[in-house]
Amino acid sequence: MAKGGSRRILGAALLVAALTSTAACGASSDGAGRAVEGAPGPAAGQQAPAKTAAQLRAEQRAAVEKQRAVRAAAARKWGLKRVPLEAPAPPRTKPVITTRKGFETAGTGLPPVFTTVPTKEKVVFLTIDDGSDKDPELIRMMAELKIPYSAFLSDYVVSDDYGYFEKMRKSQPAGVTLNNHTLNHKYLPGLSYAQQEREICGMQKIIEKRYGKRPELFRPPYGNYNEDTLRVAKSCGVKAVPLWAAEAFPDHMEWREWDQDLHPGDIVLTHFRGKEEWKGTMPDMIRRVMDVITSKGYAVGRLEDYV
């Protein structure tokens, strides 16, 4: 080959190499460590650079702010005067629950009966009894507001629509728990041991069959019980008997304590009721109770995280 041809080939090769090198350097950085348009991604088989702690914190803050905005929008949609406060993180170790003074029976080693969970956090717990009214708006409202609650069910009023409570349970898998309120809502101290066993353990079996888990919490109808009640409950898997410190209605609150106020760890009771039985709907009742709870600086926690 002639010398002129060799020089032209060599020059072309050098030019191509130089252009390739410049493109690779210029596309990856702008001189300040920032990626620029056209920068190549990681090569096949290589991982992208790990996010820095600052980047992770920024992403977490953004996620929290987004959740707060969604909750604020839900509060406006459902007519709440205030956005519900965020509950504190559940305790790593659940507090020791003991029977409230004056609520004891002569028996020992029985499930504790209590109205308030021992905690210093400004958190209360919402519980709803029986299952008579089955308003689909309640499920949607609570799910959109992300308010946890515990339902205590009686079979004589839920058996016509078990599916409603399955939808309720699935609406907030980590926020709604279905518990025991007996088969027929009878006055338990007036029943024999065997009759109480049918009422309590019979409902345990139904909830386990229908919803996949045997409850560990049980509330006696009207809050009335005797030693047989607690012995029966323990025999079929009940670990605790939460009563209540306050009761919510669509138009007012009723209080157990003399100061007529909320306290850290209080359990709030309400019922599945509609306009036929009281002055308002289930969403009306939630609006009322949440405005009271929030105005007093409390958040709603999940009872089963503490008991």
UniProtKB/TrEMBL annotation:
<keyword id="KW-0732">Signal</keyword>
<feature type="signal peptide">
    <location>
        <begin position="1"/>
        <end position="23"/>
    </location>
</feature>
<dbReference type="InterPro" id="IPR050248">
    <property type="entry name" value="Polysacc_deacetylase_ArnD"/>
</dbReference>
<dbReference type="InterPro" id="IPR011330">
    <property type="entry name" value="Glyco_hydro/deAcase_b/a-brl"/>
</dbReference>
<feature type="compositionally biased region" description="Low complexity">
    <location>
        <begin position="31"/>
        <end position="46"/>
    </location>
</feature>
<feature type="region of interest" description="Disordered">
    <location>
        <begin position="27"/>
        <end position="46"/>
    </location>
</feature>
<feature type="domain" description="NodB homology">
    <location>
        <begin position="122"/>
        <end position="307"/>
    </location>
</feature>
<dbReference type="InterPro" id="IPR002509">
    <property type="entry name" value="NODB_dom"/>
</dbReference>
<protein>
    <recommendedName>
        <fullName>NodB homology domain-containing protein</fullName>
    </recommendedName>
</protein>
<dbReference type="GO" id="GO:0016810">
    <property type="term" value="F:hydrolase activity, acting on carbon-nitrogen (but not peptide) bonds"/>
</dbReference>
<dbReference type="Pfam" id="PF01522">
    <property type="entry name" value="Polysacc_deac_1"/>
</dbReference>
<dbReference type="GO" id="GO:0005975">
    <property type="term" value="P:carbohydrate metabolic process"/>
</dbReference>
